[in-house]
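Workshop exercise sheet. Pairs work together: one partner reads the sequence aloud, the other fills in the structure field after running the prediction. Swap roles for the next sheet.
Pair: D.N. / O.F.
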Amino acid sequence: MIEAFTVFNVVRILTVATLAFFGALLLEPLWIGILKRYFARGKEIEKTNKPIFNALHKKKEGTPTMGGTIVWFTVAILTVAFWLLHGWVDGFWSRVNFLTRSETYLPLAFLIVAGLVGIVDDIVGIRRRGGFGMRIRLFIYTIVAVIGAWWFVVKLGRDSLNIPLFGDITVGPLLYFLSFVFIIVATAFSMNETDGLDGLSGGTFMIMFAALGAIAFDQGRMDLVTFIAAILGSLTAFLWFNIYPAKFFIGDTGVMALGFVAGVVAMFLDVPLLLPFIAIIPLFESLSVIVQMTSKRFRRRKIFLSTPIHHHFEALGWHETRITMRFWMINSIGAMFGTILFLVDSKLPPLNSEVIRDIIQIILR
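Structure field:
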């Protein structure tokens, strides 16, 4: 028999997701109008250094950016609204509140702060082509990540990392601090590289948050699940306008906000080492950039026609919808594998040397 507690939380999750979807869906046409009126230049394509990219994306020039603002703004408004209702009304609506110190304070703070920084980056990019350079972005990522790492170490007392199938390994405050910073920066950087085709980053974010939501649900963190449900609802509405041909782009405001939150949620759930599976496409995207830059620096030649790797497939003649759909499929498989690995890990005792030896013997037979 399903407990009433679980039934209530399922209803709460579905209610918040539905409200986020329709709220964002209603706001987006208004936001598109504002972007076209006050930021009419929209996205600009660099004219030098990237001839293949320029040729493939010339048609996108002028498309409004900063569409991701609606995603994090809708989530923030819903979160605050239900927090206020918690003290003003009685009944079901007073119990929907999911803003709690133990689960959602930090993700909400990251969502808003990173979203606002991203807006500045987008506006700079419109006023003078390019926006913040990668060095400045990495510096910003690091500063924000350091603040989050301090909170986890000092306020939450974290000093261990979960190794899938092997349990928690105590690494100490310093190594945990450094690991936190690296994971948050890597997640934000990878998602920034994934943003390049209509619907690609939005769909990838949806898959990632769906997996993280399933893990949070299994851990019984219902306030965090509800927060993630709000993100998924607003992301679905965003994709309504962002799939090919996109009416607007997610922009750095959306990528920064959601990238930071994904990393923070993974750290909070103690599953950062599952991110390479849950975010396998962003991992490939960022690795392709690193490999390309390394090859050009030391070998004076390119490995890919263009990077991130989705541009390589574009240069090969693939239509962007074909690339987007297949990348979604790949990330879905990775996310399912990561979720299953978590479920197996959470239900079985940690492996020891004897168990590992037995597994190897079974494989070799």
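Discussion prompt: The mean pLDDT is 87. What would you look at next?
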